[in-house]
Write a structure and sequence with these properties.
It is a single chain. The chain is an alpha/beta fold and 248 residues long. The chain has helices at residues 16-27, 40-53, 70-82, 108-132, 153-172, 198-206, 216-229, and strands at residues 6-10, 30-36, 58-62, 87-90, 136-140, 178-184, 237-240. Strand 2 (30-36), helix 2 and strand 3 (58-62) form a beta-alpha-beta unit. Helix 1 (16-27) crosses helix 7 (216-229) and helix 4 (108-132) packs parallel to helix 5 (153-172). The relative contact order is 0.14. The structure holds NADP nicotinamide-adenine-dinucleotide phosphate (NAP). The site of NADP nicotinamide-adenine-dinucleotide phosphate (NAP) has 25 residues, from helix 1.
Length: 248
């Protein structure tokens, strides 16, 4: 895949926000390394869609990020295929309720691994290539990283850690690369948590300044802005939440 386009790795890109981010960046002439965990069919279908629009502009990389050496292998394979890496979007994450003292298994390790440690390791592994290309990172965080989310203690802790790491890494890795964050509010309802229930969704919307959920493109446009346009911005977290954080 040798051309002059920039290359972005988007983790968890097969569905939902990750897919929207991949599509938006691709529309702006960025070639896409589509990472997926279990959703290989959806990732291949997205890849076909992008390659139909522009030949040899996307490739799928499947790995469970918690496997040993996953981040090293992922970056190595991307460099083998594309020859470079300009942008990293740490989007993959897990989200389900773990109320403190009410959860039978200690899930904290899994949340910290997937939502905090692996994104940081991926930045570390990708850094030599990002540095070479004066690249940039966007970490997808969450507005609840600023205040906490009742019944989601482990998730909140992991996103708080990622929020702080985003600022720290922006400082440490400057001026070579920029590191920013996007904190979504209610954009796409989770498929595996209590927030599927209608009364909870109604409550969230009523307690959002703009009185509606966002759409995936609200996030992907902000990611594209931070990666491609905001060249004097680093260590910043943009809330894309319709004003939800004003109520929590
Ligand atoms: N949706 C919202 O409204 C909202 C609100 C606040 C924050 N966020 C944040 O925005 C980002 C995207 O949200 P989303 O709702 O679109 O995410 P999601 O559907 O919950 O998850 C995104 C992807 O993460 C991947 N993933 C999880 N664990 C993995 C592992 N061990 N190895 C490899 N891949 C793994 C999965 O890929 P596979 O399916 O391929 O396994 C999954 O499709 C997340 O960081 C989330 O915390 C979203």
């Amino acid at each position: 895949m040798k051309n002059n386009n920039k290359v972005a790795l988007v983790t968890g890109a097969a569905h939902r926000l990750g897919k929207s981010i991949a599509v938006e960046l691709h529309a702006r002439e960025v070639d896409i390394a589509i990472h997926c965990g279990q959703s290989i069919e959806a990732a291949r279908s997205l890849c076909d869609q992008l390659n139909t629009k522009r030949a040899n502009s996307a490739s799928v990389f499947q790995c469970d990020l918690t496997e040993p050496d996953a981040t090293d292998n992922l970056v190595e394979q991307i460099i083998q295929i594309f020859g470079r890496l300009n942008y990293l979007v740490n989007n993959a994450s897990i989200f389900y309720p773990t109320p403190f003292l009410e959860t039978p298994n200690n899930e904290l390790d899994a949340f910290m691994q997937i939502n905090f440690i692996l994104p940081v390791k991926l930045i570390q592994t990708a850094f030599p290539f990002l540095k070479k290309s004066h690249g940039a990172v966007v970490n997808i965080i969450d507005i609840y990283a600023q205040r906490g989310l009742t019944k989601h203690c482990d998730y909140t802790a992991s996103k708080m850690a990622l929020l702080e790491a985003t600022k720290q890494l922006a400082y440490r890795l400057a001026p070579e690369i920029r590191v920013n964050g996007v904190s979504p509010g209610a954009i796409l309802w989770p498929t595996n948590s209590g927030e599927q229930d209608q009364p909870k969704q109604k409550f969230i919307i009523e307690n959002t300044a703009l009185k509606r959920p966002g759409i995936a493109q609200d996030i992907s446009l902000t990611v594209a802005y931070l990666l491609l346009d905001a060249l004097y911005t680093t260590g910043s977290i943009i809330n894309v939440d319709g004003g939800r954080r004003l109520y929590i």
